[in-house]
Every structure is written in structure tokens, then in C-alpha cells.
Amino acid sequence: MGDSVQSALRANDSYGFFHGVGGHVVTGPTRTNVNDVYMILAL
């Protein structure tokens, strides 16, 4: 996995990396030019 991390960093491919390891988050369209990010804090 370490090699794939380095490869993704060199290629600037965060989408491909996180999609491949199951960590890809799909937020859906926001219909704005502002990125909407929601954070949840679980204690």
C-alpha cells in the first residue's frame, strides 16, 4: 500500500487512490461554486 500512496501523490490522483481503497466520499452536486464540507465529530 505504501507504493500506491507514493504513486498517487506523484500523480496528484487523490480520487483514484481513495476510490480504490474504499475511502471515496461522494457529496453530490452543490449547484454553487463553493465547496460544501460537512464534518461530524464522533465522541
Structure description:
The protein has about 45 residues and is an all-alpha fold. Helix content is about 40%, strand content about 0%. The chain is built from two helices and no strands. The chain has helices at about 1-10, 15-20. The protein is extended and about 35 Å long. The chain starts with a helix and ends in a 22-residue tail after the last helix. About 0% of the residues are buried.
Helical content class: 40-55%
Major sheet summary line: none
Mean pLDDT: 79
The parts where pLDDT drops under 50 for at least 5 residues are none
Could you tell me how far the N terminus lies from the C terminus, measured between alpha carbons in angstroms? 29 Å
Rounded to an integer in angstroms, the radius of gyration calculated over CA atoms is 14 Å
Q: Got a strand count?
A: 0
Q: State which percent range the strand residues make up.
A: under 5%
- Gross morphology is extended
Encode the helix/strand succession as letters: HH
Structural class call reads: mainly alpha
How many H/I helical runs? 2
Key traits:
43 residues; mainly alpha; 2 helices
